[in-house]
Amino acid sequence: MIGAYDLKFRGEYNRHAQAWMDSVPCQVIGSLAMLSTEVSVLLLTYLTLEKYICIVYPFRYLTPGRRRTVTILVVIWILGFVIAFLPLVCKGVFRNFYGTNGVCFPLHSEQPETLGAQIYSIVIFLGLNLVAFLIIVLSYGSMFYNIQRTGTQTTKYTNHIKKELTIAKRFFSIVITDSLCWIPIFILKILSLMEVEIPARRCVGALKAVQAEHVAPQVCSTRSSSSTLSRITTHYSVYPRDKDPRWEGVEMERFADEADVVIVGGGPAGLSAAIRLKQLANQHEKELRVCVVEKASQIGAHTLSGACLEPTALSELIPDWKERGAPLNTPVTEDKFSILTEKYRIPVPILPGLPMNNHGNYLVRLGHFVRWLGEQAEELGVELYPGYAASEVLFHEDGSVKGIATNDVGIAKDGSPKDVFERGMELHAKVTLFGEGCHGHLAKQLYKQFNLRGNCEPQTYAIGLKELWVIDEKKWCPGRTEHSVGWPLNRNTYGGSFLYHLNEGEPLVALGFVVGLDYTNPYLSPFREFQRWKHHPSIMSTLEGGNRIAYGARALNEGGFQSIPKLTFPGGMLIGCSPGFMNVPKIKGTHTAMKSGMLAAESAFSKITDENLQSETAGLYIPEYEEAFKKSWIWKELYSVRNIRPSFHNYFGLYGGMVYTGIFYWILRGKEPWTLKHNGLDADQLKPAKDCTPIEYPKPDGKISFDLLSSVALSGTNHEHDQPPHLTLKDDSVPVAQNLAIYDGPEQRFCPAGVYEYVPLETGDGMRLQINAQNCVHCKTCDIKDPSQNINWVVPEGSGGPAYNGM
């Protein structure tokens, strides 16, 4: 009855059992249930076959001896243990097998099974058990038929089989009882695997009463609570337009244009690649069309970083950058590093050679620097297209990348076409460079399409929040960098802060706070930790009397060397922060991003201009880029610091990582003969809310600390309101059924822009998720940290998002 009810109301029963399904007791009980079931099934099958042999072939030499019987029983128990405990041992293949496969009810879970678990479930339920059931039924049918046929003809074997017949009848009653229990489960399992929904009927009154008694009033699935509720997700990537009658007759043909190289993303990596390509084309007197598409309304408007720039790559790309007026106005003159307690600051000496030594670097407003790079690119003949978001990867028939398509415009919030609907444009190229930045949505597709992450660890991330302040000139020290770790984070939460004094014609400081997204407490709010950090005496003394003028946030790649994916594939390459080349202990990635773009450009240019080249695919495959990357200083730099970030995963956390860095990096310079591993996906690290302590944050005072919405207002963020939310959900019911029920809705805390909030249903009997997509600052944190991995960030209409001015 419960199984049938769950099949009818898919997810209704499931959401109340979710906490149980994810628990260790469920998995242990499920494995024990599987053990007892499979041993009993195999044992009954064996005993049935034994009686079959003794009765149908009543000869002594066919009867199993004691040794053989003991051996078979031992084998049955060993096989039972293997079947039952294999899913617990091989978590990578089966995940939460006993919570989602139907051994423990419900028969259907919103958590998808892995392919291995599905095959295993089918083999056990519909293979082994069904075959055993058929063997038992056929054996007993054959037995009784033979007894009836031979019993009337001769009494020769009557005494011999009399005892066996009595035992057989007893076992037959046991088998029939067991079979009657298994038949409905077989049927329900088949229906569940086929995802068949039982037609709606009136529920049993008692079942209604039980449901009403156990439903938590604050938890209600948006999808199943009311058919009148509008969809949260209306984007065509979730609800295809070819199945939507509102799109019938709409012209869907796109205009296509050709280029030699198309670059997605007008950041440091993409612009460096474009500049280098045109430099080489001019140097060799070759015609080369290079196009850069950028989703921001202006080049640099979506760029956010600290930023302390190491000028190595810039000097290689544009040696005369000073003469050209590059906006590097603040050389570092002073370095400070500290451990913070709640009230005190403990200075830590920065020894020569440590990552935090910034001698020779520059404090910059990276958005202004990127805008300047765009000007240099345009002077060389690069075509820049700001305000055009690349929304789709195009492929040739042979599977190689053909180019990209920009997003459609003129789609209403409900997913229907407006009168002003226009299709995006296709840009085809011989090779396409993807430099979207951290956690690019096209790169995610490419990782799966070409299995680019097959031989590396999952990427791990952090969220960085930043503000610009104009402070009292007496407190201003141009060129000073201050970094700190410790309070307000505990020792097991990776993170830290920066405060840079910029020389930009006014007493300006850039300050920021970084929190590793592998944190475990769902009550943690990176934004509120940032606001609390500013009240530390050593920070507040700088900010008092000042004026906050800008705010923004962005995710950062922190996986480093261990998480570098395959960089090349037929028709394209990954560059910059899209694959992730950030030097975590240095908190710098601009120089490595620029260098990767230059290496990709040099490799692509030699292939594109090779007149004798015979490519096996329509889109050029350029493995030389990856080879050049591994020979470059980026590879050496990232390898040398590969163990610093994962060294924080120890009992002592922050302090153990600092000791490791001081001993092994400073002395051995990363030459230790081992490589530490990360903890896995950041989305998997959150603990259930019931296992964590809520964090009480102080109210903002409006002078040093501020509320979220007034902060987002300073980012200049804006989106066309009447468009489908670009924060899409794979399943609208999951946020309430899982995230709110288990983790107390962590998206309403980890989002630094107030995009997600849980609000009461209009009926007053539960909650629903509300997505304020117009607030989104494009940080991608939700896509990364969502514990159910149900959120998929896609690009909105071009020009939407933040409008940073030199962040």
TrEMBL record:
It is found in: Mitochondrion inner membrane. Residues 1-192 form the G-protein coupled receptors family 1 profile domain. GO terms for molecular function: electron-transferring-flavoprotein dehydrogenase activity; G protein-coupled receptor activity; iron-sulfur cluster binding; metal ion binding. Pfam families: 7tm_1 (PF00001), ETFQO_UQ-bd (PF21162), Fer4_ETF_QO (PF05187), Pyr_redox_2 (PF07992). GO terms for cellular component: mitochondrial inner membrane. Residues 767-796 form the 4Fe-4S ferredoxin-type domain. Its EC number is 1.5.5.1. It comes from the Eukaryota. Keywords: Acetylation, Electron transport, FAD, Flavoprotein, Glycoprotein, Iron, Iron-sulfur, Membrane, Metal-binding, Mitochondrion, Mitochondrion inner membrane, Oxidoreductase, Phosphoprotein, Transit peptide, Transmembrane, Transmembrane helix, Transport, Ubiquinone. Its cofactor is [4Fe-4S] cluster; FAD. The chain crosses the membrane at residues 28-49, 70-89, 119-140, 171-194, 648-668. Monomer. Accepts electrons from ETF and reduces ubiquinone. This is Electron transfer flavoprotein-ubiquinone oxidoreductase, mitochondrial.
